[in-house]
Amino acid sequence: MDGVNLSLIMAAGLLACLSPGPATLTIAGTAMQRGRKAGLIVAAGVSTGSLIWSVAAAFGLGAIMLANAWMFEVVRYFGAAYLMYLAVRSARSALTPGAPKLHSSAAKSLKSIYAKGLALHLTNPKAVLFFGSIYAIAIPPGTEPAVLLTVITVIAVQSTLVFHGYALLFSSAAAVRVYQRLRRTFETLFAAAFATASWQILTARLG
């Protein structure tokens, strides 16, 4: 693949997935609260959002959004609002005394869990910046469609493995036991982290 450093792209993608952020918090929280199945489903939602942004950036949408500030601003405000919504939910849970409630795994509930992960990543302006930068800088103009498809596939597989790995890790029996003992502490930390991320996105500027 002339002109395309796939190893560098994979390294950048891996760092983006592994770095702590709203997606990691959401997957971890869902896996500990609702179990492995729910954790894997919310991870699938996050992975789908990642794939959508990757495909969009490959076809030039990321560069268009970065060149048109108002489009990026729309995503930014929606992302900040959604993270603040998650912060409020976690805060309400932290203020609720008693043992953690067992959540149903009904189909409707699982669909909403998937939608939660999808919405989280689709409203993440950092995803726009990441994929927009990757395809604008690391992929030369005129790159063949087959090469673009390879890059999209590699990033998608890598992010899916990382996000689902988080779901498996945090749905382990040990992680669930720790969460059950310290539920209100965890929810307080989640609320603070989501609120902080919301504020950082809201006050961020392109430069």
Mean pLDDT: 83
Terminal residue distance: 32 Å
Query: How big is the Rg?
Result: 18 Å
Stretches where pLDDT is under 50 for at least 5 consecutive residues are: none
Tally the beta strands: 0
Residue share in helix: over 70%
Q: What is the overall silhouette? A: globular
Please write the string of helix (H) and strand (E) elements: HHHHHHHHHH
Count the DSSP helices.
10
What percentage of amino acids are in beta strands? under 5%
Question: Which class do the helix and strand fractions yield?
Answer: mainly alpha
Protein name: Amino acid transporter
Membrane topology: Multi-pass membrane protein
InterPro entries: LeuE-type
Subcellular location: Cell membrane
Structure in words:
This protein has 207 residues and is mainly alpha-helical. 81% of the residues lie in helices and 0% in strands. Helix 3 runs parallel beside helix 6, helix 5 crosses helix 6 (107-122) and helix 5 runs antiparallel to helix 10. The longest helix has 26 residues, at 69-94. The radius of gyration is 18 Å and the shape is globular. It is found in: Cell membrane. Its main location: membrane. It comes from Parasedimentitalea denitrificans. It is a multi-pass membrane protein. InterPro entries: LeuE-type.
